[in-house]
Design goal:
Elements lengths: L1 E5 L4 H12 L3 E6 L10 E4 L5 H8 L4 E4 L13 H21 L5 E7 L7 E4 L3 E3 L6 H5 L14 E4 L12 H20 L3 E6 L1 E3 L12 H10 L5 E2 L6 E2 L1 E3 H13 L6 E5 L5 E2 H11 L8 E2 L16 H7 L7 H8 L11
Parallel strand pairs: 1-2, 1-4, 2-3, 4-5, 5-9, 9-14, 10-13, 11-16
Antiparallel strand pairs: 6-7, 6-8, 12-15
Length: about 350
């Protein structure tokens, strides 16, 4: 099978390419960055927003794994045009090229848990509720956890399922949801299978080094590499699902090859949440004295959420996917894994 991987030179995309090549697939990469992770690949060095280059890249492919994206929370709202251009316009250019070529294969999109906004919460009185966006006044008072919108009572976070209402809380999240909408619209019109893999907090080798757009795992890892204590925002008790990049890459291969094809949104997660402070402590412990212990510093990022973690049952049912790398194993490996310059997803 000839597979096009957009963003195939990036963090997750390069691991997907490695898995596909190892499985005997014929792989084509489209990425504006240089590809440096193997030789058995047809590389098209171009931007996914370039219609002419994309038309050439999609010719003759039987499946597409769309990883190319601008990632992270962003610096400020001035980043909005760049996010919309890379993520939404880039996806539109890709889909238009596939339409022109009469593409009849399957499409796998790298989506994200950020489309959920806050995760799932249960109130002891009002059952499952959706808390509103976090109030900066409460955050300034270090009141981190959301409250029931009906009674103001405390809430218990629960794993989010794919049928949870989408509620993106920042620009990046909004563009990821729009990518899903575009790809599902394409699939319906062309009667072909589309799977949107909603990655949770991915970490592992080849993560981008510390940049304003990096995820928390890369930020902590970069701090430790520089001999600095990881700076943990809020109280460190934010819950996330940290999933190793090798498991994420394998999930993509399963989505590209499963019989029958997987469709719809699928959580790609370990199924075992940890706190952000757990992450920082595990990395400093694995680094064996290379940096001081984590510092819980308070503060917050207004576009962030408190708790979001996943129920991965649908991926088990449709793909036979279960994460193999435990949190402890993954953190031990990640503490010394090679990082890379910032680039595509």
């Amino acid at each position: 099978m000839r597979v096009l991987v957009t963003g195939g030179a990036g963090f997750i995309g390069s691991h997907v390419v490695d898995w596909l090549v190892a499985g005997g697939q014929e792989v084509r990469v489209l990425d504006a960055s240089p590809y440096a992770h193997g030789t058995d690949v047809d590389v098209h060095r171009a931007d996914v927003r370039d219609p002419d280059a994309v038309r050439v890249a999609v010719a003759g492919v039987e499946a597409v794994c769309h990883q190319a994206a601008m990632v992270g929370l962003g610096v400020d709202f001035a980043d909005t045009p760049a996010y919309v251009s890379h993520n939404d316009a880039g996806t539109a250019v890709l889909l238009a090229a596939l339409h022109e070529h009469g593409f009849r294969g399957r499409l796998v999109l790298a989506s994200s848990m950020v489309v959920y906004g806050e995760g799932r919460y249960r109130c002891g009185v009002h059952d499952v509720v959706r808390p509103p966006p976090r109030d900066p006044v409460r955050l300034d008072r270090a009141e981190w956890d959301p409250r029931c919108p009906s009674c103001g009572g405390g809430l218990v976070p629960e794993p989010a399922t794919e049928d949870a209402p989408a509620d993106p809380r920042n620009v990046y999240a909004a563009t990821k949801l729009h990518q899903e909408h575009l790809c599902f619209a394409f699939g319906r019109e062309h009667r072909l299978p589309v799977a949107a893999l909603r990655y949770h907090n991915v970490y592992g080798a080849r993560m981008p080094r510390d940049t304003p757009y990096a995820g928390v795992a890369a930020i902590f890892r970069s701090a430790i590499e520089s001999g600095r204590a990881p700076q943990v925002l809020e109280d460190g008790q934010q819950r996330r699902d940290f999933v190793h990049v090798q498991d994420v890459a394998r999930a993509n291969v399963l989505a590209l090859t499963a019989d029958p094809p997987a469709t719809g949104p699928l959580n790609v997660a370990s199924g075992t949440p940890h706190t952000v402070l757990d992450l920082a402590c595990a990395l400093t412990t694995a680094a064996e004295g290379a940096a001081p212990a984590p510092a819980v510093v308070g503060g917050y990022r207004i576009g962030d959420v408190r708790h979001v973690f996943a129920d991965p049952q649908r991926a088990r049912d449709q793909l036979g996917f279960t994460a193999n790398v435990t949190f402890e194993e993954g953190m031990h490996e990640f503490a010394s894994a090679p990082l890379r310059a910032a680039g595509s997803q």
